[in-house]
Write a structure and sequence with these properties.
With about 575 residues, the protein is an alpha/beta fold. It has three domains: about 140 residues, no CATH class; about 60 residues, no CATH class; about 210 residues, 3-Layer(aba) Sandwich (Rossmann fold), CATH 3.40.50. Helix content is about 40%, strand content about 15%. It has 22 helices and twelve strands. Helix 7 packs antiparallel against helix 8 and helix 21 packs antiparallel against helix 22. The termini are far apart.
């Protein structure tokens, strides 16, 4: 990227920057400079911050700095840089922690990245000549400058050694003759060495590819030969794909166990690997989750080393372009976390066929259903997720059929992780379910209770309504994890407490249930009684599936409704 100059933006740029919304990284750094808590700033725009904290933040901190440049692409055949027009440029702020290993006797070190966080802080589009300008928050730049002022920083920490670096490391220093000779001699030949001994050392220390590259220098070892090929060879990145980093014994054990468990699918070996990760994490005072990406990062590192080797040894210029593109994209070749997010209208109703196909396929995806129990985006129409007794469009007399139990249907496959959560009732249960669903090697389904304005509630009290739904037994909390079956345990964990709040009282808190009592009181009483019986039946069913003893007053699974309670919409 080549630097260029550009003028300041106008009113349109100013309005756009005022609407910049702070993510976690920007909020953390602005908080560090201003003394405010990052949570106070996260999600706010620059305009919001100016209004909310006019005397707590120095206005100069909220200025922006313009950074300009040109996006170019190098032609591998000619080496000429050509501008890339109309390309999207993203400025990313990346923070990583590193485990470093720097042997005292080695001129090089190894760095293992973990706990990396990346956030896009600016975007731009190049013009017809490949030029662009972006506005970067001043406090983000100032934070980095202050960090570097206050700490001892390395100049270059990720420079890979070249062939010449390895040659200098292997070749012993030459001692000048003593006493000095009276007349100067010609300069020494730059590659004079005992070739057989040096190649043997290179092969033992750095592997056969490095030894082969050093041996190729002999092809140009003649008087009058051009030094250009040799200089290019010496400047090339050393092919160290076969040089293993100095891993601790625990990490080597992880790699060995992973190779075996990946081919056999042995649950015992997977547990041994998990225990090894936990042991190593405790030794270095880290969260075990931070080390779970070790294997995939190791594979990416091996791939990049191999690509560097191929680039250095490429004789056909046309091969350099694709190899360079692969090198640029290598960091993205890691395990992806695939999430599908949708509402209940899609999951329960119009998109159920597609959802069922995904769950049945066994693919490693996680589906998050934000269940508002109504078609929220299209005006509040009744859906198969609408609970019994609720009033909605096309159900003005209250819905007379029970809600579709999507979670129970998914459990019948046996290989799907299923969870039902309500953050307003138990936030730690929600977090646990998300982590389990993400770690499950197969399809996962999370049903999340989502309060909605169509419920006829004060949205500021939405979390309290979620708690009321759980305490009354209208919404159950559970986790169905097929991995528990491998350990001889019941895969279903019923995490809801026994209902301790009257269902009628919880329903009366929401207009969607309360409206019917004014327009059709008798119908409302019938639906309320049916909802109570349906709640008891569902609670008893889940107790039985979870292997729990039924509580007092619970209905037996399959018990019919009393005469006269067979209701229809």
């Amino acid at each position: 990227m080549h630097s260029t100059s550009a003028g300041l933006g106008g009113k349109k740029d100013g309005e756009r920057l005022d609407n910049l919304r702070l993510g976690g990284s920007l909020a953390g750094r602005l908080g560090a400079l201003s003394g405010l808590e990052p949570e106070q700033l996260k999600g706010l725009t620059i305009a919001d911050i100016n209004r909310s904290f006019p005397y707590l933040i120095d206005p100069k901190i909220l200025f922006f700095r313009q950074v300009c440049g040109t996006v170019v692409k190098t032609d591998p055949a000619t080496g000429v840089d050509a501008p890339v027009p109309f390309a999207t440029v993203q400025v990313e702020d990346t923070d990583c922690s590193f485990l470093g290993y720097f042997p005292a006797a080695s001129p090089w070190g190894w760095a293992f990245p973990f706990r990396c966080r990346r956030e896009v802080i600016a975007t731009a589009l190049t013009d017809a000549c490949g030029r662009f300008c972006v506005w970067i928050p001043r406090w983000d730049i100032d934070w980095i400058l202050r960090f570097r002022r206050e700490r001892r920083c390395f100049g270059v920490i990720f420079e890979r050694p070249s062939i010449k670096d390895l040659l200098d490391h292997l070749r012993p220093p030459e001692l000048l003759p003593w006493p000095p000779r009276p007349f100067p001699e010609p300069d020494p030949w730059p590659f004079r060495f005992r070739q057989g001994e040096l190649l043997r050392q290179a092969r033992e220390t750095f592997g056969q590819p490095v030894a082969q590259r050093l041996a190729s220098l002999g092809a140009h070892d003649s008087i009058g030969a051009s030094l250009t090929p040799s200089q290019a060879t010496l400047a090339a990145v050393a092919p160290l794909a076969h040089l293993q980093p100095p891993l601790p014994t625990e990490l080597k054990a992880i790699r060995n166990l992973s190779a075996v468990s990946g081919s056999r699918g042995d649950a015992a070996l997977r547990e041994a690997r998990s225990a090894t990760v936990s042991l190593l994490a405790r030794q270095v005072n880290l969260d075990p989750k931070a080390l779970e990406i070790f294997e995939q990062r190791e594979r990416v590192g091996a791939l990049k080393a191999l690509v560097h080797q191929r680039i250095a040894g490429a004789t056909d210029p046309s091969q350099a372009g694709p190899l360079q593109q692969l090198l640029e994209q290598a960091d993205a070749l890691v395990k992806k976390s695939v999430w599908l997010v949708g509402g209940d209208g899609w999951a329960y109703d119009i998109g159920f066929g597609g959802l069922d196909h995904v769950l049945a396929s066994g693919s490693d995806v996680t589906v998050l259903v934000l269940d508002t129990e109504v078609y929220s985006n299209t005006g509040g129409q009744v859906s198969k997720a609408t609970p019994l007794g609720a009033v909605a469009k096309f159900a003005a007399a209250g819905k007379g059929a029970a809600k579709k139990d999507l979670g129970l249907m998914a459990m019948t496959y046996g290989h799907v992780y299923v969870a039902s959560v309500a953050m307003g009732a138990r936030d730690e249960h929600t977090v646990r379910a998300f982590l389990e669903a993400e770690s499950y090697p197969g399809p996962s389904l999370i049903l999340a209770y989502s309060h909605c304005i169509a419920h006829g509630i004060d949205m500021a009290q939405g979390m309290a309504h979620q708690q009321a739904a759980v305490e009354s037994g209208r919404w159950l909390l559970y986790r169905y994890d097929p991995r528990r079956s491998d350990r001889g345990e019941n895969p279903l964990q019923l995490d809801s407490p026994a209902p301790r709040r009257p269902l009628a009282g919880a329903m009366a808190l929401e207009n969607r249930f309360r409206l019917l009592s004014h327009s059709q009181p008798e119908r409302a009483r019938e639906l309320a009684a049916a909802a109570e019986l349906q709640r008891q039946r569902r609670w008893a069913t889940y107790q039985a599936l979870a292997g729990l003893a039924p509580g007092p007053g619970a209905m037996a699974p399959g018990q019919a409704l009393p005469p006269g309670q067979e209701l229809h919409p």
